Structures are given as C-alpha cells and as structure tokens.
Amino acid sequence: xxxxxxQPGDVLACWGSGLISQxxxxxxxxxxxxKTSPAHVALIxxxxxxxxxxxxAIGEPLVLESTSLSPLPCLFRRERVRGIQLHTLGQWLxxxxxxxxxxxxxxxxxxxxxxxxxxRVAAGLVRKGSRYDYRGAVCSATTIFKLLYDSEIDxxxxxxxxxxxxxxxxxxxxxxxxxxxxxxxxxxxxxxxxFAKPLRILPAPKEV
Length: 208
What we know:
By secondary structure, the chain is of the alpha+beta class. The protein is 32% helix and 15% strand. The protein has helices at 19-27, 49-52, 89-93, 112-128, 134-139, 144-148, 158-168, 182-191; strands at 11-15, 40-45, 62-67, 83-88, 98-102, 199-202.
C-alpha cells in the first residue's frame, strides 16, 4: 500500500456519521454511482507561511476549507472561526472519519506556476476571512434558488471555495461556484478528464 503524498490542488472529500453530515450525504445521494455523496470538501494548498506572515514557518502541507463545524483553531487567526480557515494536514485528519482524495492527473498537472497562483489565491482568501455561506449551502441543493442566487466572495461554503480555487488555476470549469454541492463537485471531478480516480486515505485501506 502506498503512503499518501499530498500535492497542491488535491481535493479532500469527507464523509461523517454526525447528523448534519448524514443529511448532506443522503440528501445529495449519487444515483449514478449509487453511493452517498461527501458531506464536505477541502483543498491541499502550499505552505502559506511567508505569504501570511506566519512564524515560524509551518513547513508541511496545509488544508484550506470553509466550515462552521471544525473544532480546530485556524492557523492564521489562532482561534476557531466559522468560514475560511487553514489547518495542517496532520491536525485536520485527526477530526475526520472517512476521506477520499481527488488528484489532478498527470496529463494536465499542477505545475510550479499553478502552485504559486494557488498559494496567492488561498492566502488572499484566508487573509480576507470570508464567512461561511449558510444561505448558499442550503440553496445549492435546490433548483429554483440556485438559478436566482449568485455567490459572493465575502461568504463561501466548502465546495464553493474549492471550485473558486481550482478555477483560478484553470483546473475546473469557470462557472458560478455556488452551483456545486460537495456531491456535485465530486461527480464533476469524476466526469472531467483533469482528475484521477479518487484514493481513500482515511480510514487507511487494509494491507493485503
């Protein structure tokens, strides 16, 4: 079994046993693959220590996410927040139950220029401190409201944030990011040619 080696642009799709997670997972059930959809998504980004003025340097892969439920303090704010936040991958994995990784494939990989731009975009969003988009999270699962509601950069929920970042480095369609629930984002990543087959990293697959 190969050990997961995180790379900038990796999308982390999460499933949980809590009530809210169960509602999202079953409410956006993936009929095509006949499986529950993820309840949450996050993104691996480069070390943002220098861009955000964090000292000493973190020196390890970081997870960028937008949530209202994390028990972890944001590395930049140094307190728990509801909205965009930053964590080390090691810390973040301790509060997850099941995680699958969607990686941009080798046909159109994340090159140095992409990683640099992703770092700038991520640092700008963390510094801005966009709030969690409760209204967007609810409306994203509906048809009528989704057509009427435009996303705003001041408020982003998890799949909006990931879509914004991936679109910035041209690895995802440049559409209104608000249309993507975590489940729809995962299905779109399976559909388009940029992403490889998802890899489960938590719980760790059993060795054969």
